[in-house]
Amino acid sequence: MIEPNGFKQHSVVTSLGRMVYYTAEELPWWGTDATEPKELPTLVFLHGFGGGSSAYEWSKVYPAFATEYRILTPDLIGWGRSEHPERNYQINDYISTIIEFLEKTCTEPTPVVASSLTAAFTIRAAIARPDLFKSLILTTPAGLSDFGEDYTRSFFAQLIKTPVLDRILYSTGVATSGGIRNFLENRQFAQSSRVYQEIVDAYLESAQQPNAEYAALSFVRGDLCFDLSLYVPQLTTPTAIIWGQKSEFTGPEIGKRLADLNPQAIRVFQPLEDVGLTPQLELPAVTIGLIRRYLKLLNSETEG
User: Fold this and answer.
1) 197-207 and 212-221 are packed helices; what angle lies between their axes, rounded to 10 degrees?
2) With CB atoms counted within 10 Å of each terminal CB, which end of the chain scores lower, N or C?
3) Pairing of the two strands 42-46 and 110-115
């Protein structure tokens, strides 16, 4: 995986294994005249799921906040450089390890930026432990079985449930440079021209880690999907949602329905034209501007 200049790797131990995270601690961010990172408020970035996902997903965004916040951006368990237990991952595995990560690294309620299915897990974590969260800024938060839809009935989910075949499909169709580029260009991004080789290389390195197939196949089988609409009304943390209008997996109409379930907590629903599932990679400068805007809006409300 590829870290921006000045960001270094650390880790914490969770109930499912060691979780690696990245934080700024060297030049150009910290020198003799800089505020020490420990004196800054914390800002956490959580990546979404898909073949080869990792903290790299936010690497074009989080350095923009490194002089204002103590940045923490982990590889979730089963992804990137974190441990990859041989298990069929379940929803509670990620809700619990997100909570554990915040407990071990943050000393006060923290703003969290999260993506796609992980953003949906983060909503459930914030419902379970609202004391850990100051605000949420979420890109395309979806449980992938929202409002009664059943992802597990899809052809690909059924195909991946076939033993042996699932590993073959992963190794030949997902964890290859061609497979990753094809997915990014045709499913994840709205514009294929925005996919460049560094992105493919970073996803490929993560996808080829030992035992990386366990988390990825749990995701593709639908073991991690749920109906987020059943939980959104319980959310109390101030939240802003950013939604790419060309998201292949869940369209903005689903996002707007989710947001309308709880306008007290979800203060902002912002669709983005000509953007797919990951605006943080496709249009990082726009994403930085929106995150900065919503951090100011949401955090001023909690402080007021």
Assistant:
1) 100
2) C
3) parallel
Residue type for 275, please?
A: V
Place of tokens 């609202």: 130
Gap between the Cα atoms of 19 and 8, Å rounded: 14
Residues with Cβ < 8 Å from 177, sequence gap 6 or more?
Answer: 200, 201, 204
Q: Shortest CA distance to 209 belongs to which of 31, 44, 54?
A: 54
Helix 91-105 vs helix 116-128: angle between axes, to the nearest 10 degrees?
Answer: 70
Q: pLDDT tens for residues 123-143?
A: 999 999 999 999 999 999 999
Tokens of 258: 């989710």
pLDDT in tens, 187-230: 999 999 999 999 999 999 999 999 999 999 899 888 999 999 99
Tally: H helices and E strands in the chain: 10, 8
Q: Cα(98)–Cα(49) distance, rounded to whole angstroms?
A: 14
CA distances from 2 to 119, 210, 280, 297 (A): 22, 18, 15, 31
Q: CA distances (Å), 234 to each of 74, 237, 266, in order?
A: 26, 10, 11
